[in-house]
Design goal:
This protein is of the alpha/beta class and about 300 residues long. The chain has eight helices and twelve strands. It has a four-stranded parallel β-sheet with strand order 3-4-5-9, with helices on both faces. The radius of gyration is 25 Å and the shape is elongated.
C-alpha cells in the first residue's frame, strides 16, 4: 500500500527517518515523497520473488484477504525482522458492552455483505500474521485504528459534509441514533506506526489507535450562536480537521475595539451577517479582499 490515505501519510513521515520502499499497483507515485516504488499486484508471487534486498520491517496497509501475508513472506528471498499489520477495531466480537481493549475476544462469526467479508478477512489475517511470523522467527505488531479522518481520505466522511455545506448551505443534525464511536486523526495513526518500527516493546502486541473522546451522532454538530439571521451547524472534522474540538467558551465583543466599519461589506462582515456578506462578495461591486474608504 502506501499511496492513498493512511499509508500515504505514513510514507510522508517515515521517509524522513528511514529508507522506504513502497510496493503497490502504482496508481499514484510516491517517489516525490522520498520513497522508492515497486509496481505490481501484491497477490502476484513473482513481485515478491523479484525482491532480493533485505528489509528490516514490512508495514502492510492493504492486506484484506486470507493468504495475503503468506504470499509475501513465503516468496521473499529474505525475511524481515518485523511485520506490522494494519488491522481495524472492527475485529472485536459484536454485542460486547462497554469499551473494548486489546484483550477483548475477536469476532468468530461471518456476517453477510461487504462489511462482513472485510471483518472476517482482518480477523483471519491477524491469526495468519501470528502463525506465519512464528514459523519464521519474525516479530509482529498489529495496529487497529478506529474511524480514520484527515487529509487524503478517500472515504466520503469529511468530503460529504463539506460538499453538503457548500452546495446546500446546511448540514444534517442526526438526533435519533444511539451509536457511539471513536475516531483517530490520520497523522496520529501514522506516527503510531512509525513508533512501532523495530520497537521491542511492540513485538507480539496489538494496539487500538483512537482518540479518548467518544463521539455520538448528536455531538457531531455544534451550534453557532444566532447573530441576526444567520446560524449553522458545523461538523467538527470539516474545518481545520481537529481545531473545533470542544473548548472552554470564550466571550467575544460584538465589535473590534477601535474599528468602526465603513461600507456595506465591512458592516455586514463585522457582525457576522453571512447572507449579506455572501451576496455582496458574489456581486460585481464588491470583492473579499477590498479595503474600505479608510484603506482598511
Amino acid at each position: 500500500g502506501g499511496s492513498y490515505f493512511y499509508g500515504r501519510v505514513f510514507v510522508m513521515l517515515a521517509a524522513g527517518e528511514h529508507d522506504v520502499t513502497v510496493v503497490n499497483r502504482g496508481t499514484y507515485s510516491v517517489e516525490s515523497l522520498g520513497a522508492r516504488q515497486i509496481r505490481g499486484d501484491r497477490r502476484d508471487r513473482s513481485v515478491w520473488k523479484g525482491i532480493k534486498e533485505k528489509y528490516d520491517v514490512i508495514v502492510d496497509f492493504c492486506a484484506y484477504e486470507k493468504d495475503d501475508i503468506a504470499t509475501v513472506l513465503q516468496n521473499m528471498d529474505q525475511s524481515p525482522k518485523q511485520y506490522v499489520l494494519i488491522s481495524t477495531v472492527d475485529v472485536y466480537r459484536r454485542g460486547i458492552k462497554g469499551r473494548k481493549n486489546e484483550d477483548t475476544p475477536l469476532e468468530t462469526r461471518v456476517f453477510s455483505g461487504e462489511a462482513g467479508e472485510y471483518i472476517a478477512g482482518k480477523v483471519a489475517l491477524e491469526r495468519e500474521v501470528r502463525e506465519e511470523c512464528a514459523g519464521r522467527g519474525i516479530e509482529y505488531t498489529v495496529l487497529r485504528p478506529a474511524v480514520l479522518y484527515g487529509p487524503y481520505n478517500y472515504a466520503p466522511r469529511e468530503s460529504m459534509y463539506i460538499q453538503m455545506m457548500v452546495k446546500n448551505g446546511l448540514l444534517p443534525h442526526i438526533n435519533d441514533a444511539q451509536g457511539r464511536f471513536q475516531m483517530v486523526y490520520v497523522k496520529d495513526a501514522a506516527e503510531a506506526a512509525v513508533k512501532a518500527l523495530l520497537n521491542e516493546n511492540a513485538y507480539g502486541r496489538a494496539y487500538n489507535l483512537c482518540e479518548e473522546e467518544e463521539i455520538t451522532y448528536d455531538s457531531q454538530t455544534m451550534t453557532i450562536p444566532r447573530r441576526r439571521r444567520w446560524y449553522t451547524h458545523l461538523w467538527r472534522s470539516c474545518l481545520g480537521l481537529r481545531c473545533m474540538h470542544p473548548q472552554k467558551k470564550k466571550k467575544y465583543p460584538l465589535y473590534l475595539i477601535g474599528y468602526d466599519p465603513i461600507g456595506p461589506l465591512q458592516r455586514a462582515a463585522s457582525v457576522g451577517d453571512l447572507d449579506t456578506t455572501e451576496k455582496l462578495i458574489h456581486s460585481s461591486q464588491h470583492h473579499v479582499d477590498e479595503s474600505d474608504r479608510r484603506k482598511r
